[in-house]
Amino acid sequence: MTQTIVHMLRHGEVHNPTGILYGRIPGFKLSDRGQQQALTVAEHLADRDIVHVVASPLDRAQQTATPIASSHRLDLATDPDLIEADNKFEGLKVAVGDGALRSPRHWPKLVNPFRPSWGEPYVEIAHRMLAAAQRARAAAEGHEAVCVSHQLPIWTLRLFLEGKRMWHDPRKRECSLASLTSLVFEDSRFVRIEYSEPVGATNPRVTGA
Predict the structure, then answer these.
(1) What pLDDT sits at residue 173?
(2) Helices 122-139, 151-161: crossing angle, 10 deg rounding
(3) Which end of the chain has the smaller Cβ count within 10 Å, N or C?
(4) Res 36: pLDDT
(5) 56 is a domain residue
(6) pLDDT of residue 34
(7) Which residues contact 96 (CB under 8 A, 6 or more apart)?
(8) Residues 4/141, Cβ–Cβ less than 8 Å
């Protein structure tokens, strides 16, 4: 039986001075702190048996992945299935009390939390993320892979694999900045999840995290 580990790594902190929900908007890069987080997680993974590194096409994920690929002397691959969830609130502030949710014109988007009308349905996120994880597993069979993605997609995948409901309170996600949600496979079969925070815990309530 062959064991393979696929680390789903959340990107580091993003420079987002206006506090908007940036989603898939291009041009949002790591902050200075985020760049340090990327280096820290690369150091944390330096002695691991990593043979494949792949990232979401968004800048913040690519920047987070680059030090890991470099330290293992690997080419960085890109997988569009690792991208952030689609969201109709992109470009807006969504903080409770002072954001877009105060406007009645946005309320119809919140009617069905099980199939969110404000963005990509959870089941579709889970399926594309699992497909990306399986491709990474195949590329690193018998070794380890790193997939750099985003908080909501990683957390949705975890809920799906654990057989839990995917509708959830975003404030309770266990997916800190630059955290590792590691999927352990035996051959092609998923067996368990291991979670770690190489740069420490961060507040899931903070916009731009």
Answers:
(1) 87
(2) 90
(3) N
(4) 98
(5) yes
(6) 97
(7) none
(8) yes
Whether residue 113 contacts residue 165, with contact meaning beta carbons closer than 8 Å, is answered with no
Output the domain CATH number for residue 69. Answer: 3.40.50.1240
> Are 158 and 194 in contact, with CB atoms under 8 Å apart?
no
In a domain, 162, yes or no: yes
One-letter-per-residue 3-state SS of the chain: CCEEEEEEEECCCECCCCCCCCCCCCCCCECHHHHHHHHHHHHHCCCCCEEEEEECCCHHHHHHHHHHHHHCCCCEEECHHHCCCCECCCCCCCCCCCCHHHCHHHHHHHCCCCCCCCECCHHHHHHHHHHHHHHHHHHCCCCEEEEEECHHHHHHHHHHHCCCCCCCCHHHCCCCCCCEEEEEEECCEEEEEEEECCCCCCCCCCCCC
Contact (Cβ atoms closer than 8 angstroms) between residue 205 and residue 171: yes
CA distance 160 to 37: 27
Give pLDDT, residue 22. Answer: 80
Phi, psi of 105 (to 5 degrees): -70, -20
Determine the structural domain holding residue 70 and report its residue range: 3-16+30-86+120-196
Averaged pLDDT, groups of 10, the chain, 209 residues long: 97 87 86 97 98 98 98 98 81 51 46 60 95 98 98 96 86 92 97 97 63
184 within a domain of the structure (yes/no): yes
Q: Residue 96 falls within a domain, yes or no?
A: no
pTM over the 0.70 mark:
yes
